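Researcher: I'm preparing a figure for a lab meeting and need a structural model of a single chain. I don't have an experimental structure, so a prediction will have to do for now. The sequence is pasted below. Please return the structure as tokens so I can convert it later.
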Amino acid sequence: MKVLLIDDHPLILSALQSVILGLGGDVSVTGAGSAGAAREILKADPDYDLVLLDLHLGDADGFEVLAEFRKTYPALPVVVVSASDRMSDVIHAIDLGAMGFVPKRSSNDTLFEALRMVMSG
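Model: Understood. Here is the structure written out token by token.
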């Protein structure tokens, strides 16, 4: 499984990469510290199985990035991983095509379960 992780906080990016690699098996994680970097990564290699997207990026609004990715890469599942757990943000993300929404304060087990559910359809 090839995962693209987009978060502009280096500590969070590193921690989430470690957690995702903990899924085991054939998992590879590419980190992008900005929406611009993520766009370049996907342009060069659109063959990812999953995108994990933070909503609050330094160079772009995460909701706009989500809408853009759903339009440009319609078969690519996107899961929002955000510090926000406001119901309005969850609903908006799902309405824009997110396959899931995981608050950053969730446990590793919750994140694993959400990723398994998304990957299984």
